[in-house]
Hints:
Elements: H1 9-19, H2 26-29, H3 36-43, E1 51-55, H4 63-70, E2 75-80, H5 83-96, E3 101-105, E4 119-123, H6 132-140, E5 148-154, H7 159-175, H8 185-190, E6 196-201, E7 206-212
Parallel strand pairs: 1-2, 1-4, 2-3, 4-5
Antiparallel strand pairs: 5-7, 6-7
Amino acid sequence: MNTSLPYSRELVRQRYNRLARWYRLFEWILWLPRGLREKAVRKLELQAGDSVLEVGCGTGRNLKYLEAAVGPSGRIFGVDLSERMLARCHVLCETSGWRNVTLVRSDALEYRPPRKLDAVLFSLSYGTMQHGQRILNHVWSQLRAGGPVVIVDGKTMPGLVGRLLHPLIILEMKASVLGDPDHEAWADLKALTDDVDVEEQLFGAYFTCRARKGSADSVPILAAG
């Protein structure tokens, strides 16, 4: 299960402010599979006019896919803790002419979009978030019945290779994005609904999981912490 990471919110904000300028390079450094972002957005099954929230939108690497899916009549909400990440995201929106994107600097636990959501995306962000499961529950409560949550992220590879690489990956995460390669996002989703599917890529180093909210699904009450 996703537990609280041992980093303060201010440390995370400062770290991502420093990484903002170089963040695109991490797709190469971390061997991000080609098409991973686009595939994750397709799993949201967005329609023209839909409203979607990206939690941890960063520099906006997913926006072109979200924009193409919801069209100019749709709404895209992005929330992030880092003002420098969002500054680059704002520039991207301006140069691309996207007028239906609302960007907010906030802790995801404190953010509420102005309307009910049709879908929620965590893209390479869930495993870096403080109190990830609480954040997931928070956005789940703002999702319409039938709407999906998609989480795409990296994880420890299975088997001997994963065990051998694990110490190196932990050091790399501490030195860069402050992530947790051992989080189990799919388990957090399964605590909310039985309607969860998981796909792995790059020999299990990355995964995409989707959960769909049923009409009877509820949000469990978790202790603060």
